[in-house]
Amino acid sequence: NASLLGEHKVAGNFAPEMQFTLQQDWLPGISTKQQKLPSGAVTLQWNVVPGATGPFAQMVSANEEGGAPTIVFWASSEVQTFYSGMSDFVSPSEAQRLVGRKMLMPPSQSSCTIPKEAVKVAESGIFMLVSHGPEQNIIYPPRPKDPKVDWVQEWAVKARFVSRSGGILGMEDMAAAGGATTASGK
Q1: Which residues, listed in sequence order, are joined to residue 70 by a DSSP beta bridge?
Q2: Can you list the alpha helix ranges (DSSP code H) found in 36-115?
Q3: What is the structure's pLDDT at 179?
Q4: 3-state helix, strand, coil in the chain (%, to 5)
Q5: Distance of CA 76 to CAs 2, 110, 114, Å?
Q6: Is the pLDDT of residue 83 over 50?
Q7: Cα–Cα distance, 66 to 108 (Å, whole number)
C-alpha cells in the first residue's frame, strides 16, 4: 500500500536538504501473458497501463546448436533499432516522437508478436516489457518571475515513472516463479 504521492524530504552529509512534493504515484504494474501460435511465433499480451507514454518489448536468447554460438536480439520496433536504449526511461516528449517513428508502440497497444524465426533460435529466450510513463521535474528555488534577477539553482529532482514486466518464453506463470509484475520509479 505504499504511495509516492505527497511530501518528500532527502537529507545527507554531502548534498543540500531537499523537500519536494510528488504529484504522480507509482504506475500500475504490467501483467503479461504469452501464447505460442501454430506457426511457432509467440504473442505477448499485457494490460494497458494508464498514464503510459509508450510500451516497448524485447527478447534476448542464445544457443549453441550446430557448434556455433548464436545470440538473438528481438525488439518490438517496426523499424530497425537496437533495443538497449528503449528499455531505459524515455521522456514523455521523446516517447511521443518514438511512437511516431514506430520505434515504440502506441500507449493503447496491448500485444505484439515475436516472430517464429526468433523463437526457433530462442526457445528459452528472456523477454522484457517496459511501459514508459511521465516524469516530474522540480527545481529549487523556482525560476524568478523577473528575468533580471539571477537564478541560482540549489538542487533539482527528476522523478521518472515506468512499469516493467518480463519472463521466459514458454514459461506461462511467472507469478508462480516469483516474478513478473513490477512498477517502479527512478
Answers
A1: 63
A2: 92-100
A3: 44
A4: 10, 40, 50
A5: 32, 12, 8
A6: yes
A7: 41
Contacts of 135 (CB under 8 A, 6+ apart): 89, 91, 92, 158, 159, 160, 161
CB distance 31 to 172 below 8 Å:
no
Largest CA distance in the chain: 71
Contacts 24+ apart (CB under 8 A), 14-17: 15/155, 16/154, 16/155
d(CA 37, CA 169): 12
Assign residue 81 a region (left: φ > 0; alpha: ψ between -120 and 50; beta: otherwise).
Answer: beta
Contact present, 130 and 185 (Cβ < 8 Å): no
The per-residue pLDDT for range 95-154, each reduced to its tens digit, is 999 999 999 999 999 999 999 988 888 767 899 999 999 999 999 999 999 999 999 999
